[in-house]
Specification:
single chain
Length: 72
Amino acid sequence: MPDYKFNVVMTCSGCSGAIDRVLTRLDGVKSQEISLQTQEVLVHADGASYEKVLETIKKTGKEVKSGEVVSQ
Protein backbone atom coordinates (compact mmCIF):
# COMPACT_ATOMS: atom_id res chain seq x y z
CA MET A 1 0.00 0.00 0.00
CA PRO A 2 1.53 3.31 -1.05
CA ASP A 3 1.81 6.39 1.13
CA TYR A 4 1.54 9.89 -0.33
CA LYS A 5 2.69 13.11 1.32
CA PHE A 6 1.40 16.54 0.33
CA ASN A 7 2.37 20.04 1.45
CA VAL A 8 -0.96 21.87 1.60
CA VAL A 9 -1.66 25.48 2.57
CA MET A 10 -4.03 25.27 5.55
CA THR A 11 -4.74 28.29 7.76
CA CYS A 12 -7.23 26.89 10.29
CA SER A 13 -8.86 23.75 11.63
CA GLY A 14 -11.66 24.25 9.10
CA CYS A 15 -9.12 23.80 6.30
CA SER A 16 -7.69 20.60 7.75
CA GLY A 17 -11.21 19.39 8.56
CA ALA A 18 -12.33 19.85 4.96
CA ILE A 19 -9.41 17.78 3.71
CA ASP A 20 -10.08 15.10 6.32
CA ARG A 21 -13.74 14.87 5.28
CA VAL A 22 -13.05 14.42 1.56
CA LEU A 23 -10.28 11.88 2.14
CA THR A 24 -12.43 9.89 4.57
CA ARG A 25 -15.07 9.54 1.84
CA LEU A 26 -12.60 8.67 -0.94
CA ASP A 27 -12.57 5.00 -1.89
CA GLY A 28 -9.09 3.52 -1.71
CA VAL A 29 -7.84 5.62 1.22
CA LYS A 30 -7.13 3.54 4.30
CA SER A 31 -6.29 6.47 6.60
CA GLN A 32 -4.81 9.96 6.65
CA GLU A 33 -2.77 12.11 9.01
CA ILE A 34 -3.21 15.86 8.72
CA SER A 35 -0.96 18.36 10.49
CA LEU A 36 -2.04 21.98 10.50
CA GLN A 37 1.24 22.91 12.21
CA THR A 38 3.54 21.40 9.54
CA GLN A 39 1.04 21.92 6.67
CA GLU A 40 1.39 18.24 5.72
CA VAL A 41 -1.11 15.61 4.70
CA LEU A 42 0.05 11.99 4.80
CA VAL A 43 -2.27 9.56 3.05
CA HIS A 44 -2.13 5.78 3.52
CA ALA A 45 -3.70 4.52 0.32
CA ASP A 46 -5.29 1.16 -0.34
CA GLY A 47 -6.13 1.41 -4.02
CA ALA A 48 -6.43 5.17 -4.59
CA SER A 49 -3.89 6.57 -7.05
CA TYR A 50 -1.63 9.52 -6.29
CA GLU A 51 -3.42 11.54 -8.99
CA LYS A 52 -6.87 10.80 -7.54
CA VAL A 53 -5.82 11.80 -4.01
CA LEU A 54 -4.18 14.99 -5.32
CA GLU A 55 -7.29 15.89 -7.34
CA THR A 56 -9.52 15.26 -4.30
CA ILE A 57 -7.44 17.52 -2.05
CA LYS A 58 -7.43 20.27 -4.70
CA LYS A 59 -11.24 20.12 -4.93
CA THR A 60 -11.38 21.54 -1.39
CA GLY A 61 -9.90 24.77 -2.81
CA LYS A 62 -6.65 24.41 -0.86
CA GLU A 63 -3.32 25.06 -2.56
CA VAL A 64 -1.11 21.98 -2.85
CA LYS A 65 2.48 23.24 -2.91
CA SER A 66 4.08 19.82 -3.43
CA GLY A 67 3.41 16.13 -3.25
CA GLU A 68 5.32 12.88 -3.43
CA VAL A 69 4.99 9.14 -3.14
CA VAL A 70 6.86 8.30 0.05
CA SER A 71 6.49 4.51 -0.07
CA GLN A 72 5.16 1.85 -2.39
